[in-house]
Records
---
Amino acid sequence: MSNMSKAVTLIGVPLEEGSGQQGAAMGPAALRIAGVWKALSSLGYGVSDQGDLKPQPATDLPTHENAHNLSTVGAMVRALEQATFEAAASGSVPVILGGDHSLSMGSVSGMARHAAVLGRPLFVVWLDAHADFNTPDTSPSGNLHGMPVAFFCGQAEFAPILPANRPFVDPRRVYQVGIRSVDDHEREQIQASGVVVFDMRAVDELGMAAIMRSILAKVEAENGLLHVSLDVDFMDPDIAPGVGTTVPGGATFREAHLIMEMLHDSGLVSSLDLVELNPFLDDRGKSARILVELTASLFGRRVLDRLTRPA
């Protein structure tokens, strides 16, 4: 990510059907209004905005009593998997403007396909309050935004959303940071799978910098591609209230920026999700602006470059 001439592709995903509530579909528009294109362009990147994906519902997907809105979410996952793969294959960095977190079933799967073509492993840094490792058999809600990690790790094949022989992500290459809300059955699945979890207690005890150094060292050692998935609820709701799944005790403003700065310095990041922004629940665009600022940090904006905003 240190190559300032690298191209960036913005892909809007106005998806809320995976979350069980309305509002996240407005996320891509809010991120554009908050200036995500301008922030990246000002850093020297060539930015292409592909607009919003608008697939028709997938009529071949069955109704599933504990996987709600499967036809709508499944169609978006298919469209995003292809769009993400094509953007990455063209040499661009896909930046996904969400939309609820079920979209990561598509974005991560697209990057897994791209990594397989290159013969390199894909790693995922999952910045979230939730582990999102449920399946329809374990989910207490049936909302698909709680299942993407299990899905792209190949442990939630409950419907033919994507080809069964597609590349999966090795759970041992998934690093979840900031976790603080996990269902009981989900916890058992995570432990059995090998997903590496740094919950907020680990953040408090080890420090965010040490955690990120350990993750980045492993990605670099295997010459991996790195996908970053950033959920608004990763941060404390006092900082970023515009999300429907708030959990107290999240990351601070500086911890979030430190992660992004270290990711940029590593030069390892290949793709980015910005998810679960619900402008209807936000405070005058506060959360959208923070996501744009964090994106700018990931792409190289330095502390000394930031302007002071009026109080």
Note: Strands lie at 7-13, 46-52, 93-98, 122-127, 174-179, 196-199, 225-231, 269-275.
---
Amino acid sequence: MALKKFNPTSPGQRGLVLIDRSSLHKGRPVKMLTEGLKKTGGRNNKGHATARGIGGGHKRLYRIVDFKRRTWDVAATVERIEYDPNRSAFIALVKYADKDGTVAYIIAPQRLNVGDSVIAGKKVDVKPGNAMEIGQMPVGTIVHNVELKP
């Protein structure tokens, strides 16, 4: 993703740099990979406000992201890259090459583009979007989306 730098027209915009989102998908997310997201307003299970200043905001749909990447040794093609209001990373819609052509959302790493092929397995190439076990990674590999508990 490219960065957009702005000329300051006010003191608050001095040094403003934003991500260019023109290459992201403009439509709605895949309906079978979304579900409703209930807001808490900063309240706990007793209804007491435990975090102040939380409330309002735009209505959101939760995108179901495949963090585990359990479909091993099946190549997938990146269909599109989307904005996700629930996390700071973009997500990528991938379509698997097996016979039924299932789709899933994955966390989109940097330098992943539409049309790229990604694969998850024990022995795969070290490319952006590919997933492998941490013991199989060469030393010095740039990683993303690491789970805390095995």
Note: The longest strand covers residues 76-82.
---
Amino acid sequence: MTERMHDGQLVVDEELAGELIAREFPALAGLPVVSVSGAGTVNAIFRIGDAVAARFPLEETSDADLASEALRLAEFAAASPFSAPEPLGIGTGDERHPSAWALQSWVPGEVADPFSLASAAAFAEDLGALIIALRAVPVGPRAFDGRGRGGVLADHDEWMSHCIAQGAGIVDVAGVSQAWASLRVIPTAGPHVMSHRDLTPLNLLVDGGRLTGVLDGGDFGPADRSLDLVCAWHLLSAGPRRMLREIVGASDDEWRRGAAWALQQAMGLVWYYETSNPVMAELGRSTVERVLGDPDVI
């Protein structure tokens, strides 16, 4: 039995997913429902036929939350120069899976690998094009919603202290402590911009070494302009990383804040998922090593 990643984690298999899908969306009844394996930490994903995906949250989520997410997802899909899922509907759970769940269009592609694509200059160019396109969307009257990463770095001090304690023996926690102390005080590098907010390998689809699709656009919104730069340390080696920086025109402060957000995210992965999701834990370790070994950051 696979170890659960979260306390109270909801469980759904192909049989249950198929029953709920057929009940809520009769037009899809009879299509094959296949679990999509991967290292995702938020949803169980099922492919329905050739063109539809169902996302069942691993933690209870309301239909209002998913409706709000669908609006942002649609805006993201319109802004992205690469394919992105579009919302198709929201389903209701029952006592077997007490959470709302969502239907989206299926986007083909392979999940980006944080190692095999590390030296791919064309992939770095694609990431730069994506970030520039998202930043071009007007923020308007919207403001950062205060959730997760994307606001004030120092607000994450307590979390980083906890992660550093938990990460002892897994990563160079002395190096992480020293890096965070330096990075957390870097000032913001300009007004907030529209951001995907989670440009990690699992949310990027590739084919032939090029970016072809972007998943999980449901958090699209204003955030620190440095936040989407986390992909540089999650995915790229030094040369392509510098290329990405040149494409987006990041200043020293903007670039180093991007590294700070990558470090904050990675430190949560290395210990929290150490046994329950080794792929995510390994991503965390490799990102920490890239940040600590980057002369443009440390």
Note: The mean pLDDT is 95.
